[in-house]
Amino acid sequence: MAKKLKMTQVRSIIGSQEKKHKAVMRSLGFRKNYRTIYQNDTPQIRGMLGKVRHLVEWEEIAEKDVPAVEAGSAGYTVISGPEKGKAEA
Prior knowledge:
Number of helices: 2
Strand order of the largest sheet: 2-1-3
Distance between the termini: 61 Å
CATH architecture: 2-Layer Sandwich
CATH class: Alpha Beta
Order of helices and strands: EHEHE
Structural class: alpha+beta
Radius of gyration: 18 Å
Largest sheet: 3 strands, antiparallel
Number of strands: 3
Shape: globular
């Protein structure tokens, strides 16, 4: 059975060696604080985690423990504003 890594960003990259760490965090898939990401357990991912070990918490899990992604769920909600060209009353 393949192993996965459950990674959660617990600290901001502001104040750290931002140029180096920001690139690593982006390549891991982090975009915001306190997000959880599941990746395959590979030596490349482990190496990146070693660079930013003070910014993330991680643990090994089995592949069956990864939650399923709902179909059509983008992870965000778009709230439309007033339409252009229409006057508000």
